[in-house]
Amino acid sequence: MSDEDEDTQEHKQGFEIELGVKQMVVLSAAVSLLAGFSAGTAFGASIAPEPAADTKDSEEETPKDVFRQISNDLELDTERVMQCYENSSNDEAIQDRDNAVRNLGGLGTPSFFVGNREKGFIKISGAQTLPRFEEAIGRIQNGSVENATSLEGIELEGEPSKGSPDAPVKVVEYNEFGCPFCAEWNGFDASSRVPIDRLQIADSLESQYVENGEVQLISKDYPAPRLHPNGPMAHKAANCVYRHEEDSYWEFHDRLFENRDRWMRG
User: Max alpha carbon distance in the chain (Å)?
Assistant: First the structure.
């Protein structure tokens, strides 16, 4: 049995692609490659990481080394961030995941909830393309929401976010830093077999809806240590950056995806 087959049985991650007219051109070359994935389902197969170069340096590098280098590259207060990392019990990430399981049931990653406290939230499972988010945002704005999901018991304030806290629509993302679909949705290449990153979905959502005040994007942690054992370490490092260098959180977030292969193999 391959690593990918074991991943599939152990933990299924969300992967749904709706092909809009604009996306057909970008993805047409990959249709045959995607045929093995279960499009249109809430949970799909996980992707094994791309093979990493087998060098002495990469073998000796630990996840903590990678986090420290990213912090240094961003000119953060690295000693303060790494001291937090050493002393943290990672409660923030564990609580996010446990509250989600308790209130929403088990989730694949990425999972999104689009809406607000008044009208409820529309659940979007998987690395969906922009039209799916536009449809959900439109339904919330027009009040045409049926069978909405309540996020009662889920904390939305005080979390890493982009956009105005007064935005009428929230897009709540449950993210796992080791998840290849999370990386791809955020615009980072995690597998040559799934070119979702080329669509720049997160950037498009931000430029078209977040920057104009219509939407606030909120990030929640959903570590999956059985699938990606080093994932909780990345969440812990990110939360330490958020605690001590809040303005640099999203840069650190992006660098974690960019360097995913390095800290995952350490």
Answer: 58
CATH class for the domain made up of 56-265: alpha beta
Whether the upstream peptide bond of residue 110 has omega within 30° of 0, thus cis, is yes
pLDDT band at 92 (very low <50, low <70, confident <90, very high): confident
Per the CB < 8 A criterion, the answer to whether 77 and 122 are in contact is no
The gap from C-alpha 97 to its chain's centroid, in whole angstroms, comes to 13
DSSP, collapsed to helix, strand or coil, labels residue 172 as strand
Q: How far apart are CA 219 and CA 179, in angstroms?
A: 14
Judged by average pLDDT, the poorest of 15-24, 30-39, 150-159 is: 30-39
Tokens representing 83?
């001291």
DSSP state of 41: S
Q: Domain-by-domain residue ranges, the chain?
A: 56-265
Identify the helix (H) or strand (E) that includes residue 253.
helix 249-258
Give the separation between CA 266 and CA 250, rounded to whole angstroms: 23
